[in-house]
Every structure is written in structure tokens, then in C-alpha cells.
Write a structure and sequence with these properties.
Layout: H1 2-22, H2 27-41, H3 45-58, H4 63-75, H5 79-92, H6 98-110, H7 113-125, H8 132-145, H9 149-162, H10 167-179, H11 183-196, H12 201-213, H13 217-230, H14 235-246
């Protein structure tokens, strides 16, 4: 989960933050970068990689081009090249805090979990970080994957103190609480998440599943049916539909 979620967020950041830097780059490089972002967003990773490589060749001093290149390598699970690109982006612009999250993701993907968590912590602690809740959530996810549930719970809670409208930490916190055999607390956290984000199908699905575990079948059915309505063709809706079949009649 950690890599997929970070990848989506990082891509948004590329699009949002690139504009100021692109004015300093050759027009052809700007075009290649924009094309690379489009390909990456639409899942054409190999085409994105080629465009980012060409953009970097034309302007190796643009940190956003380096970030895009790192994201493409991350999508291909080429951790060595991703790490090199992200480090280059930080070398060019040490204040580009979001890249520290990307670098951390790549380090964890490569097996360097200690280094990855250190980068996430550095990003979280940086006062210029515009989204510390993301760094805290990623730390929580890293600890969850390591089955260190107390630290996972702590970091997911920290994420929520920074942004109650962010769905991922509710889901991670519930997973950590369930793994700690704290079902009632997990249900309460998911209820809080649905109250904050009533349109989020993934939260509705998770709450329905938690109700199912608790034997609250009527409430489970209501939430699962709602998840199907919110996301009929998506992964949350499909999983909710499958879960509905397992409910007692």
C-alpha cells in the first residue's frame, strides 16, 4: 500500500509544483516533461520514462524533471535509478521537501527500511513541509508493514492530528488496531473517518468489514451497500459487493 499511495500523491505534486521551474527550462524540455507527466498519470510508464529522460538531458538542473524521472523509475520498481534521481533533485534544490517522501519510498522499496524511515521522519520534521500528514502516514505504514503496531498506531494518530480529512491514516490505524486485537477501537476510528469523509468508498468498505467482524451484520450490510453505490466499478465497490455475498441472509 505504501508505494501505491505515495506514487499517486507524488505525481500530483509534480504537476502542481513544476510550473514555476518550467519557465527556466527550454521549451522543448518543458513539453517533454508535460508529456511525461501525462503518460505517467495514464499508466504508460515506459513512454513516461523516455520523455523524462529526454527532459533531463535537455535540462539536468531542473529538480522537477529529476523528480519525474524518479517517479517513473519507482513505477518500474527500479529502486537504484529512482534513488539516484531523487537524490539529484534534492542536490539541486535542498528545500524540495516532497522529494524526501519519494526518496524514502524508494529506499524502503530497495530494502533500506531504516534509511527510508529516516527520510520520512526528516520530511515530517521539516517546517517547510506542506503536507506533514502524508509523511506521518507513511511512517505509520512502514511500521505497520514491520508489525510494529504501537509505533504504527502512534504515527497514524499523528497524521490525523494534522489533517482529519485524509482517509489513508484512518485505514492504516484501523489495520493496526485490528492486528492488535482492538476491534472496538478500530470500529470507532473508521466511524470517525466516515463521519469526516462520507463519500470515501474505501472507508465505507473498511467500516462495513469491521462491522462484519464485530457481528453487526445489519450495519455491515448498510455500509457495504453504500460503498457499492459510491464506487460501483472501482476496487472498493467490487470488494464490497463480494463481501455482501458472505453476509448472513
Amino acid at each position: 500500500m505504501i508505494r501505491e499511495a505515495r506514487f499517486r500523491l507524488a505525481l500530483v505534486a509534480v504537476v502542481a509544483l513544476a510550473a514555476p521551474a518550467l519557465a527556466q527550462s527550454p521549451p522543448q524540455a518543458e513539453t517533454r516533461f508535460s508529456t511525461g507527466v501525462m503518460h505517467l498519470r495514464e499508466g504508460r510508464v515506459d513512454l513516461a520514462l523516455e520523455e523524462f529522460k529526454r527532459a533531463v538531458k535537455e535540462d539536468p538542473k531542473n529538480p522537477y524533471f529529476q523528480k519525474g524521472l524518479g517517479l517513473a523509475y519507482t513505477a518500474k520498481r527500479n529502486w537504484k535509478e529512482a534513488i539516484a534521481a531523487f537524490r539529484k533533485a534534492l542536490e539541486i534544490n535542498p528545500y524540495y521537501v516532497d522529494v524526501r517522501n519519494d526518496l524514502a519510498t524508494a529506499l524502503i522499496g530497495s530494502g533500506d527500511r531504516v534509511g527510508g524511515k529516516k527520510e520520512f521522519l526528516g520530511a515530517f520534521s521539516d517546517p517547510t513541509n506542506p503536507t506533514p500528514e502524508i509523511s506521518a502516514r507513511n511512517l505509520g505504514q512502514a511500521y505497520l508493514e514491520e508489525k510494529n503496531y504501537p509505533d504504527a498506531i502512534s504515527w497514524f494518530r499523528t497524521s490525523l492530528t494534522r489533517n482529519k480529512k485524509y482517509a489513508d491514516p484512518y485505514l492504516g490505524l484501523a489495520d493496526a488496531l485490528l492486528a492488535s486485537e482492538r476491534l472496538d477501537e478500530a470500529v470507532a476510528q473508521l466511524e470517525a473517518g466516515v463521519a469526516e469523509l462520507p463519500e470515501d468508498a474505501a472507508l465505507l468498505l473498511a467500516l462495513g468489514q469491521a462491522y462484519f467482524k464485530a457481528g453487526r451484520f445489519g450495519e455491515a450490510r448498510a455500509r457495504l451497500e453504500e460503498a457499492v453505490r459510491k464506487d460501483p466499478a472501482g476496487p472498493a465497490g467490487r470488494e464490497a459487493a463480494a463481501q455482501l455475498k458472505a453476509l448472513p441472509k
